[in-house]
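Practice problem: predict the structure.
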Amino acid sequence: MPAAPFFVIAREGADRWCALVERGRVSELDVVGEREERLAGAVFRARVLARRPAVDGVFVDLGLARSGLLVGDRTDPPVTSLEAGTVLPVQVVRDAEPGKGVRVTRALALAGDRVVCLPGRGGTGVSRRIAETGDHARLERILAPHAGDDLRLVARSAALGVDDEVLVAEATRLAAEARELLARASSAPVPSLLRPAPDPVRAFVRDRLAARAERIVLAAGTSADTDESWPLPVERRRDAGEVLGTFGLRDALREALVPEVPLRGGGRLIVETTAACATVDLDTAGAAATTGTDPALSFDLAALPEIVRQIRLRGLGGTIVVDFLAPATGPGRERLAGAISEALAADPAGARLRHLSPSGLAEIGRRRGGPPLAERPAVRRLAATGAPRR
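Answer:
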């Protein structure tokens, strides 16, 4: 039986490394520099500057060096009806990338470990990943007394199996923070920061609790790291360098910075990114011969776990095109499509299969919270100095 998933957090020099380890391998990874600014989750009181009809959006002034882009977010009134000078609260949903400002939304969400509070909406809800109706009823019963007409509370999938008092405490805290935020949003200067972004390492753990990790291995270099209230038992280590090596974080970063990924049964993946999308190509060169009526399907299914792992490890987002070998039959294609959807279901970033063509091209959509791992500032600096190769 494989070991339970766990998190690894280590500070080495000016960088904080964080990883989720599943089945003995790093499945997700991030490196955050000491002075690196990440704004995902921050809430601003903003002013509309100008419309951008080409993308159904408007530019907004956040008080930053670059304006933010607000696109259609299913919130009334439509974005394109907003006039220049309109003042409104917005939340950053995607960090800035080279040549682009941050992406923002009017649909505010205050995320906790097990509960999300949605100001401006009412009632309660439960994550679609929680299937049992009995669990739904219990969670909604716990949250209902703390919700309101202007505050919607939603149980995240990580709420499953958590004690009532833990959920009540988190719901109460988030509801109070949301009401304070709404009050400030009506009177704060324009533009101004209403709520800072969460610590990116803490957010990394928070958004992956549904993986059912059992512990956090923590090798921290400062009191700020060790005093944090973590949602899982903490196993403290002294030597960050040893932790990074022992649990494979350095190897995982080195792996994520090169396009070629050897497959255990032979063959390889070629992972590349362009301005438009990310691509994954399957190459059977060197693969062992497969038996059965559909060798292409067999190869695709064997490679699928590593394909999904590479998508998550590299932090790929937006549109991802995977060039599978074309299954020989319609039922084979249906089986592959089902396997892809099932493999993506555990992804915290909400990846989903949009389409699988008869030729084997799979189009996958995945939420994009910022640049891919290889393009993040601390990773680019480490790559330039050769640090991941140590």
